[in-house]
Design brief:
The protein is built from 18 helices and 23 strands. The radius of gyration is 30 Å and the shape is flat.
Length: about 675
Amino acid sequence: MITTEDTRVVKPWGYELRWAITDKYLGKVLHINAGEALSLQYHNRKDESILVLKGTMDLDLEDDDGALSCHHLGPGDSRRILPGRRHRMTAIEDCDVLEVSTPDLDDVVRLEDRWPRDLCNHITRRTSLGFVAVHSNLVPNNKEHRLMATTVDAVRATAGMAVSSRPVPTHRAQPARIRISVVVPTRNEAGNVDALEAQLGVALAGVEYEVVVVDDSNDSVTRPTLRAAAARNPHWRVIERGQAEQTGLASAVVAGIEAARGRAVCVMDGDLQHPPEIVPQLLARIEAGADLAVASRYMPGGSRAGLDGTIRNLVSRSCTWLAQGIFPEARRTSDPLSGFFCCRRAAISGLELKPRGFKILLELLVCAPRLRVRDVPFVFAARLAGESKASTRQGILFLGHLASLFAYVPRSARPLKFAIVTLGDLAVFAGLLSGLIHGGVDPVPAWLTATAASAAGHLALLQLAPFRDVARYGEPDGDRLHYTAAGVSAVTSFAVFAILLIPGKHHLFLIAAVGQACGLIVMLAVHQPAVWKRLARMLRLLPVVDIDVLARRLGAQEGFWITGDGEGPDPRLEGIGGLVTREMVATASRHQQPALFVERKSARPQARLNIDTSSALVVPSVDELGEVSAVAVFVRRSRSPFESRHLDEAISWMASHSRWSDQPAESQGVA
């Protein structure tokens, strides 16, 4: 029985589509354009459903009290969908998008047709589970009923099913796409709320915007004031965090970014030291092509006049110098510790941020070194009301944040890490050499012993610190090339040592230091990815690792390259049952993010254990310039799907392939 009780409303291109489906039918909508909205009214009264996303989207889910909560979802994320609730999705980027499935069914209805922009009047599609009726309401109401009846009649004629042909009520149009979300973390800022609301309204007049306030206040005034602002201003939303969630300003900013729905996200303080009139300038930089626009106090036209006192000015400037001295990534802007910036949300989608304290911008700069950054000058104004949140504790958190970025982001601060490892190596070498020579050991054996001991520690520390991400280029050939470079370093160092030693045995320590420095220079050179690649090609030190070898090693039945811009169908992807789509591959390529996809297991109470499960690995191949040349896809169909360890192994081998061989061919396969 098909009835209009079971109706989904879709708006893929600004048009409204509806299709009526059976009570236990499953629906999939392929392709929603960036910025367009999709709404569902799900009426399955028997089972809750699972919404699985194959793209990057925002999802508003109706809570128990009727309020809509916002969730940011990425590829493979899922949310539970309850009967009778309202849901609204907005695609951040073009993607094959939505899958709604109930736990007690094994199949998913797929509307594979990509509807043209002028929209067909109706589509009737037969599947293994039933029939679907699609109609357009882009006609006067007196024709809408006839179009639906025609479509439903076609279903009735084909299936012999009783069908209701009542018109479907028109769904109200979705609001215009939000261009910018302004995230404002607040704590006891009641005196600034009204002025902030007024100034943002003036600055963003004519712009579709929203203000997301994340409030950690513990007074009795701020939250009622914010609630009143949100009640009278439809652009404002307030997120009130409980005591357990209040872990600092940076976590409040992260929560606001996750809740934001605009194409761009601007972060600013709520005390008006960040002038709202600068927000349109930041937005203009983003819409001109920048990924990150920073309001800077330290560029021509900017000023930090609003900082309280000489001491705070000195501390602020010293912290900036410290951050830029440690992290080369922070030198892309003149003010890496600014709390006033705007970013393109799609550019930071998928980043795992764990900031401490209040310097979220530094986290973005270090964790996303390829973002295009532009500065906008601004004058740091005096505070309108409230008091400064700066304290000794915030300073300690800042130092802890620097240490966390240094230790846990492998590519960060590479020159400093190399310098620390090198100085430690030289100290070990000098101490051993001095002790052995003073103990009566001949200089050459002493040098060999000291070099062997220091080199062993040096190689281990290089893999743990400055070259943690590139030290191992696959198994076992990565170690072979690594130790080949170590041998070159040792030979170079000993040659210089022996030549300078011939005239006499004086100045042994200076001579040894010169030789060791030459060896370290060689080691530093050959560890650069571009040098690795050139050496391997010129000297043919290693065999080329191809996709056939890797697929067999991973236990994949199929392995192939996907190249190009991600447009159009690919028969190889269609041949694996839609587990991986072309848009998912394109997303992995854009964000250089490897991914593991595993088919959802049956939720039946007594599911069989001898059923094969489909799984896939999607791994971008990055060249020496940091660009993705192709994406490798590996597919396995077995009772034991791919696991995270297989993804780690594939990443290691792909790193080796991208630096040792030419760009992958258009298509390769594995039997």
